Amino acid sequence: MNFASVLALPFAIGLVAGLRSLTAPAAVCWAAHAGWINLEGSKLSFLGSTAAVWIASLLALFELFADKQSWIGARTRPGPLIDRLIMGAISGGALGFSNSHTLAAGAVAGAVGAVIAAFGGYHARHRIVTGLNVPDIRIALVEDALAIIGAFLLVWRAF
Q1: What is the rounded CA–CA span in Å between residue 85 and residue 81?
Q2: Is 158 exposed, middle or buried (0-12, 13-18, 19+ CB in 10 A)?
Q3: Structural domain boundaries enclosing 138
């Protein structure tokens, strides 16, 4: 397996984190807990614990709800963007480690994917809502589905 293909999964899970920052780590936690990915011997092995699975899942569900609220700021602002970068790095690092023991390279790929998807997702959602003249909630729900299904397929593919 070449270096680029090793980094494809971490980059892709980073894209998920760019759309929904907590969906990516929740999927990684479930995958580690289920034994789909092996994080044993890494600094991220705690992600497979029962506590991590429940905490990440609850936070991801809260994010899905909170994203629809008017008081939530844009994902491209510094705070939310840094959060996505960190979650993309953690999730990408975990998939990188589980596939080839390249935690650092996976973390970088995940962080890059998260930043790209944060800006790309923000602008795409805005253009679709404006162009189609549809309520933002409809596009947000489609984005939720893409993130959830994408995360599941990526961690399942890592297995």
Answers
A1: 6
A2: buried
A3: 3-158
